[in-house]
Amino acid sequence: MIYEFKGFIPVIHESSFIHPQAAVTGNVIIGKNVYVGPGAAIRGDWGEIIIEDGCNVQENCTIHMFPGKSMILKEGAHIGHGAIIHGANIGRNCLVGMNAVIMDDANVGDECIVGALAFVKAGMQIPNRKMVVGNPAVIIKDVSDEMIDWKTKGTALYQQLPSECYESLKEVEPLREIPENRPTQEKIYDIFKK
Q1: Which are the contacts of 113, defined by CB distance < 8 A and separation ≥ 6?
Q2: Which long-range contacts (CB under 8 A, 24 or more apart) does 67-76 make?
Q3: Which residues, 6+ apart, have CB-to-CB distance to 123 below 8 Å?
Q4: Which of 43, 51, 56, 61 is nearest to 1 (CA)?
Q5: Do residues 164 and 188 make contact, with C-beta atoms less than 8 angstroms apart?
Q6: Rounded to the nearest 5 degrees, what angle is found at the Cα of 76, between the Cα atoms of 75 and 79?
């Protein structure tokens, strides 16, 4: 669902896919090849939200801010299932883990990894290429080239997903039995193992 609010209509590039069960409201600008999953809420009712090219905002994420603020997800930012970004800026090619919370005026540098369930307090400044975990979040180490390569490959899958959704996603009635010739899915990506 795409909503106008107080004269602001979201601007969404035609190559991006917003799931019909997501809500995008007001002063939101979404670039190319962005995926927004079901249940996501991107609320530009009180301020501006910019989501640059190649980002993904997965299922049940919330993006919002205090009145009069502006926030950005830079190119290739990867926002994991259930994460909350409230008035924070997320750097280029970052990974925000599942159910992480990043609070107002925090700045996450480029190519950072924020662990699942982390709580990044308001105003925290995270330099480029750092791994952040915990509640409250702390910087535990630098992000290696190997880690960022793994993250970038995972994000590339999400950058392909919008076109795949346009090509094949459709509402259907469920099957009542498993067909004998049901195909298997290829293993194209794996967890980080170091």
Answers
A1: 94, 95, 97, 130, 131, 132, 143, 147, 151
A2: 69/104, 71/47, 73/49, 74/110, 75/31, 76/52, 76/152, 76/155, 76/159
A3: 103, 104, 105, 106
A4: 43
A5: no
A6: 115
Residue with the two structure tokens 């039995």: 177
Joined together, the tokens standing for residue 60 give 């049940």
Residues written for the chain: 194
CA of 117: how far to CAs of 72, 100, 174, in Å? Answer: 21, 4, 34
User: What is the phi/psi pair of residue 155, to 5°?
Assistant: -65, -35
The H helix count followed by the E strand count for the chain is 1, 20
In angstroms, the Cα distances linking 86 to 31, 121, 140, 165, 177 are: 20, 10, 23, 28, 44
pLDDT tens digits along 77-108: 999 999 999 999 999 999 999 999 999 999 99
Q: What is the pLDDT of residues 109-158, one digit of tens each?
A: 999 999 999 999 999 999 999 999 999 999 999 999 999 999 999 999 99
Strands 23-30 and 11-12: parallel
Chain position carrying tokens 């299932």:
81
pTM: 0.95
